[in-house]
Amino acid sequence: MQFYKDGFRGGNPDIKQAAPNRRNRGVNEPLPEKVDVLIAGTGPAGLCLAAQLSQFPEISTLIIERMPSNIIKGKADGINTRTMEMFQAFGFADKVKRETYWVNQTAFWMPDPKNPDHIKRVGRVQDVADDSSEMPHILINQARLHELFLEVMKNSPSRLEPDYGWEVESLTIDPNTNDHPVTVTLKDATGINWWGTRTVRANYVVGCDGAHSKVRKSIGGELHGDAAHQAWGVMDILANTDFPDVRQKCLISSAKEGNVLILPREGGYIFRMYVELDKLNVGEKAAQRKLTQEDMIAAANRIIKPYAIDVKEVVWWSIYDIGHSITDRFDDVPEGVDRDPHVFIAGDACHTHSPKAGQGMNVSMQDTFNLGWKLVHVLQGRANPSLLRSYSKERLTEAKRLVETDHKWARVMSAPTTQAERDGTEEPRIIRQFKDNLEFTGGTAVKYDSSYLFAASAHQTLAKGEEIGRRFHSAPVVRVSDAKQMQLGHVAEADARWRIYAFSGKADGSQGGAIHKLSDWLETNPNSPIVKHTRQGEDIDAVIDFRAVFQQTFEELAYEHMPSLLKPKTGKLGLQDHEKVFCVDHKGVGDIFDMRGINRDKGCMIVVRPDQYVAHVLPLDGYDELSAFFAGVLITQC
Length: 638
What we know:
By secondary structure, this protein is α+β, with helices and mostly antiparallel strands. Helices cover 23% and strands 26% of the residues. The two termini are 31 Å apart.
């Protein structure tokens, strides 16, 4: 973590210097008449986007929520490893790791062949595969997650906070102007303002307002899907039990009574249960059965025999039916129409699925993590508005895969066990499917298709473990300036900057070689993307953050001979940045060149997007290809 860049300030370094001319947030102050971005909904998707935009006070952002305040309990709880990597960029991953339950093993229970009315443990599977991520899979109260994003917003230069008690009633788009073309009618949802309406004009609107999204309906979007005709219950409870694996994630299948999923939660005592309840008729909703928490507890006790659960407190509970649905587009541009979008939808507004795979909240945040940097680039004049077309294309493809995989997983979970599975002659389908899905459930299976944002590189063999289109897979390194062991990927913040990681070849060292030549070219050549896309007066790393990793160990490198681009002077005081040069870990944690298949003879460059996805792999002398790639994305600034 770096601070004091613009001068010493005491106190909490997470609280950024407040920007001037911020919106007055007094109790009786009106909503703004115009904003750059209006976000509807303060769920994970909306708050993830707002936290990104809040770091840019020149971008005026309004986030509204129909509820009167943040939630305090219930809803989603699973955070996969890919999302934890994203949390690192927001600066609160360590806090999340300290507070939460880590899912280390998943236990599987099935009917005991000797007594089918009872269950027995049939296997355990490591929940996060070795080296799939440096982050854990965790479980956390969604309300606490909201608080962490809200804290980032409140501590940001813009001091952004939600405007609670407002919801979208309707919106219209003026196709004849690009000056705040979206007119949004907001309605008081609490009655405090006598259910009055206000009109706000925006350059862009993002609907994160759930499965019944008014924003989606306003742009003609519909959710299409199917139902599994199965009622399930979910409850967060404080309870005593003789079930031995209550502090492990468990998938439990009974012979006749259905299935239970147990998820331990933060704090050491509370845990969540998903309980299979009644089969539903076609067209019937779970709510029509009027099932209660007592029904859920009774069903759970029938399923987990010979064990029992003695519930002391029900913290939260809900009944739902399994459904899978997706909309046909994630923005306001109809198929076949050639124009740039101004309205977007994210999260449950465009895809819904079973909660048992633990993907909904994760995919929702990844939607807006994808969109956020693109909005920043466009609103800052660094990229053409056409960049925003890529959001729907990229995220719709992933949402379709999510729904398909989740659909299959929900069917497997609800399927009865076979005799071969019960007597141990065949590995249970649920275990096989769980193992097959590990990459998917970790969030690391996402691979975007080739486009002008993801090069179809002929140089992928230079970095076999950093596949273009997939997220940058971090690995341990040592920072040369102070010998600190760390993860290379943790240098990336949610700051809308691109990264270029240069990995040295065998001939590179402190006093010359391809890294030095590349650094000099990037710093001074007119065709350099850093020179072309950085404005006069900006820090040299304001848009593209260049860093290098050497094959030698810490003792073998001379920091004083590193090129100036790797020790730039930035900020108001022109202070030197000493955190851009790295080497292999010399203390046995792992060699990043071996772990990620980096070519030791030639080295390479890896270009990483602001949302942490690998966009290009190039040789260290691939100057023209590097320049051409960025020219296709960013506007020349000089």
